[in-house]
Amino acid sequence: MRYAEWCIAAPTLEADIAAAAMGLDDIGHSRVLYGSLRELGTPDVPDEPGSYANVAYLDRPWSDWTEFVAANAVLDSGFTLMIEALAGGNVEVLRSRLKKMLQEERYHAMHGRSWLRESRAPTAVEHARRDAIVWIGPEGADVDDLHRKGILSMGVQDFRRRLDEQVGAVPESASIDWKAWDPIRRRINPGGIDELTLNMLQGLAEKRYMPAGA
Amino acid sequence: MGFVRVHADVREYEVFARKTRLEPLRQVGAVVAPDDELAMAYARATYDEERWVEMMIVPKAAIIQLWAPGEAEA
Description:
With 214 residues, chain A is mostly helical. Chain A has helices at 2-5, 13-39, 65-87, 92-97, 99-119, 122-136, 142-148, 156-167, 195-201, 204-207.
């Protein structure tokens, strides 16, 4: 959704198109992931504002292209590492279905890396990296547990190391207060996605334009 | 922060693709990017609407033209 907001606002025509294409890819990935979860018996979550488990970085629209770049280079890489760990784990439905996502995400990573070299956005990168680390979660929690069970092929330390390898040198984060970490929404900061975006995600924005009685 | 599409460090790349192994590669378009990685990402994002079995990019500077339209063959 945040990628789509930049499909007419990126610095170049090619970047506009890439923003739209990556947004479409990620919607497709969400559909596959939700479908897989359903198949694995995960109950549906009620469609309420508090149930959206987005990282805090996505709460508000980005006001600067460097924020897009940091999300693309860092957050997207973090999500891709999780897909890679699931595809390398022992759950057959995920092993077989997530391969195409990894092929597509390869191009997202190229886009992010190249723009990161051009943009030099240390503040946005640090913010995105911190939110990615928080999303992966603390050591000894659910991710490490799933790694022990073989469902994920990587544990928290592997995720952090791989993320830093891909993103390159970044300033050291201030320490993270894991006591405030919400294991369901996988974030520390309270709050959530802005109302306008939420309305669009829930289809309410479109309903306003429907003829009466439709 | 300003970014421009064309500056001293960007290059033009021609994009080639084909739908089956039997047909020859054909030029489907071009992209402008500062490096190969971004050019690959742009080519895939821009021209991926069809089911290509193969896609490749070539820096335009690497193409050696023998003659142009309207010029007689030497």
